[in-house]
Amino acid sequence: MIRMNKNESPIKPIDDKTLTQIILSSEYHQYPDEQYDRFRRAYAQYYDNLEVDQICCGNGSDELIQKLMFQMPEGPCLTLNPDFFMYQDYANQTKRQIYFIDATDELTFPIDKVLAAIDQIQPSFFIFSNPHNPTGHRFDERYIQALADKMQAIKGYLVIDEAYVDFTTPVQLPLQDHIIVMRTLSKAFAIAGLRLGLLLSTEQTIKMMREIEHPYPLSTLTLDIAIHLFEHQDDTKKHVAYQRHLSHRLKTIMNTYARKHMTVFPSETNFVLTRGNQAVALGQFLEEKGFIPRFYDPKTEAPMTQCVRYSIATDEELDAFEKAIKEWSEKHGLSNQS
């Protein structure tokens, strides 16, 4: 079975020989005293617009979401519905009150509606993903700036989850004390199993977040592999570029064969969302062919009724995927349904 339901990378970022060398040279019998700062330096240099003191790390973005729930000032959290489900899970774990802004029927979030909700709820912080999970939509600079200005006006924090930022053009928004950007190495950098997430903000805000940081938040092996990725920029950028190619292929396949039967949402991520009467039928057909898409439970994920999501696969797997979806499309000579 080919997994297309986790928004993971279908390929490893480092060949086996290089990985073996990294492991053999790793000082994993010692605490990673130097590796944490070395990784932060390498990451800052990769993006060329960051300082080391503007970065802190955690055991995946999940841990950092949980820490935000603990460390943000007293008051409710506000997010979008739908969005990354772990926001709600960690709010519940930490007894943080959480409110939701429901999407329109078209799964959009008009800025006026969002700003009105902020005024009404007065959240301690507003967290959301950009590009948005699960639609794949990228909120533009004007939209984000309006949110940043509103949260600053009510003395709250804006947390932007940029898990999929390397599949699109990043929003160019200067970091301020009340703006926190969250990133991960689980998507474009393809080390989901090693668990490494990051928070980016001003030195003052990062210092606040590090007040509850573990003495050694990441393992030596995780750091050694991450250091290699970001100290070998050319190889890593080629790896990211290849995944963007896979994303383009997936979108092309879906637009060519599925769009005439269902809604295919524009995406600036490594996944594509579909919706409509035929979307679930296609997903079930593809699952029978050996591809595992992301289905949604209409009872617990009501905004996603009749939605099915697909993430990238290898070129060879996408060849088989295209063949299967073409077969289904030819059997369903239907007019466009959404």
From TrEMBL:
Gene Ontology molecular function terms on file: pyridoxal phosphate binding; transaminase activity
CDD domains: AAT_like
Domain (Aminotransferase class I/classII large) ranges: 20-321
Keyword Kinase: no
Residue ranges that the Swiss-Prot or TrEMBL entry lists as coiled coil: none
Cofactor(s) needed for function: pyridoxal 5'-phosphate
Keywords recorded for this protein, A-Z: Aminotransferase, Pyridoxal phosphate, Transferase
Pfam families tied to this protein: Aminotran_1_2
Family matches, as InterPro entries: Aminotrans_II_pyridoxalP_BS, Aminotransferase_I/II_large, PyrdxlP-dep_Trfase, PyrdxlP-dep_Trfase_major, PyrdxlP-dep_Trfase_small
Family of the protein in this entry: Belongs to the class-II pyridoxal-phosphate-dependent aminotransferase family.
Protein name (database record): Putative pyridoxal phosphate-dependent acyltransferase
Naturally occurring in which organism (per UniProt): Staphylococcus felis
